[in-house]
Write a structure and sequence with these properties.
Arc Repressor Mutant, subunit A, Rossmann fold, 2 domains, 5-stranded parallel beta sheet, 13 helices
Length: 301
C-alpha cells in the first residue's frame, strides 16, 4: 500500500491508526521507518510520552516522528498523538515480574482478582481477534489452503501444539495439510519437498524464534505463499507474507496467551471445511466411521 497523506479524523481508533502505519511501513525511509516501528511496538507509550521521550527511546530525532505522523495522514505528531491520549497503559510486565506478582496474590488475598483479570484478558483477546480479522480475510486464507498443492503449518515451542492440532483437524478433510517440523528436525527440513506455489502457515510471537524466520525466508525464495501469524505488526515474518495476522497474546500471567490463536485456527478450520469440495465431508465421515468400527470411541451412555 503506497498511499500516504490520507487524513484520519480525530475519532479514528488507535487500532485503525496503527493499521495504517503498518501498511505504509515498508514504504518509509530508514529513520522514519524506525520511528514507525517503535510506535507499532509501543502503542501504549504514545499517549503518555512526549515526542522527545519517544525520540530518545527510538533513537531518532523528534522531527522524525513528525514526518512519520504526516506520512500516516496527519497534520503533525500532536494530531497523531491525540488519538492515543486517552488510552490507558496496558503493557504487561516482563515474565519474571509477572511470576513474582502471581505468587504474591495468595498472601494478599487477591486470587479472586486474578480470576477476574484472567477472564477479562481472555475475553478481550478473543474480541480483538474477531475485530481485527473479518470474514473476507478468513475466506481468502481458507481458499489458499483448499487450493494449495500442499500446506505446511509451522510452529515451535508452544506454537508446535497449535500447528499440530490444526493439521490434525484439517487432515480429516484434506490430505494436503502437514505440520512441521517433525521430531528433532529443523523447520527448514520440513520444506525439503515443498514446491513453488505451496502454502506455509508460520507463527512466532515475541521473542521471535530464529528458525521460524529462517524457514519463512526459505519459503519466500522458493516462491511459496506465506501466511504469517504473530503478536506484533513488525514481526520479521510479515515482510513478504500474503496474509498477515496480528493476534493478541496479553495476559496477567507470565506465559503469553494463545487463546486468540486457538480461536483463529478454529475459525479458519470452519472456513476451510465450508470451502472444501464435497469429498472433504465424505472424508470426515469415513474418518469417524472407521474409529467407530475400531472401538476407539466409547459410548458414555
Amino acid at each position: 500500500m503506497n498511499q500516504t497523506n490520507v487524513q484520519y479524523p480525530e475519532t479514528s481508533s488507535p487500532r485503525a491508526v496503527l493499521d495504517a502505519v503498518a501498511d505504509i511501513l515498508p514504504t518509509l525511509p530508514g529513520e522514519v521507518r524506525k520511528a514507525a516501528a517503535y510506535v507499532l511496538e509501543n502503542p501504549n507509550e504514545i499517549g503518555i510520552c512526549s515526542i522527545r521521550e519517544m525520540a530518545v527511546a527510538a533513537e531518532v530525532k523528534p522531527n522524525t516522528f513528525v514526518r512519520m505522523a504526516r506520512a500516516a495522514g496527519f497534520g503533525g505528531y500532536d494530531d497523531f498523538r491525540t488519538v492515543f491520549r486517552e488510552e490507558l497503559r496496558h503493557r504487561q510486565a516482563d515474565f519474571p515480574d509477572r511470576a513474582r506478582w502471581l505468587q504474591s496474590l495468595p498472601q494478599k488475598g487477591e486470587l479472586s482478582g486474578l480470576y477476574a483479570d484472567m477472564a477479562a484478558s481472555s475475553l478481550a483477546n478473543i474480541e480483538q481477534m474477531f475485530s481485527s480479522c473479518d470474514a473476507a480475510n478468513m475466506q481468502s486464507a481458507a481458499q489458499d489452503i483448499v487450493t494449495a498443492r500442499m500446506t505446511y503449518v509451522l510452529g515451535v515451542g508452544v506454537g508446535s501444539a497449535l500447528a499440530r492440532n490444526f493439521a490434525y483437524l484439517a487432515s480429516m478433510a484434506l490430505d494436503t495439510v502437514r505440520a512441521i517440523p517433525n521430531d528433532a528436525a529443523l523447520p527448514v527440513d520440513g520444506l525439503v519437498q515443498a514446491e513453488e506455489g505451496d502454502l506455509l502457515i508460520a507463527m512466532t510471537i515475541k521473542p521471535f524464534r530464529r528458525e521460524v524466520i529462517e524457514a519463512v525466508d526459505v519459503a519466500d525464495r522458493m516462491g511459496m505463499t506465506v501466511m504469517a501469524i504473530s503478536d506484533t505488526p513488525v514481526a520479521p515474518i510479515f515482510q513478504t507474507a500474503k496474509h498477515r495476522l496480528v493476534l493478541p497474546t496479553e495476559t496477567p500471567q507470565f506465559f503469553s496467551s494463545t487463546l486468540a490463536i486457538h480461536a483463529f485456527f478454529e475459525t479458519l478450520m470452519a472456513f476451510v471445511i465450508a470451502q472444501a469440495p464435497a469429498s472433504a465431508v465424505e472424508s470426515i465421515e469415513r474418518f469417524h466411521e472407521r474409529r467407530q468400527k475400531l472401538g476407539i470411541y466409547v459410548d458414555g451412555g
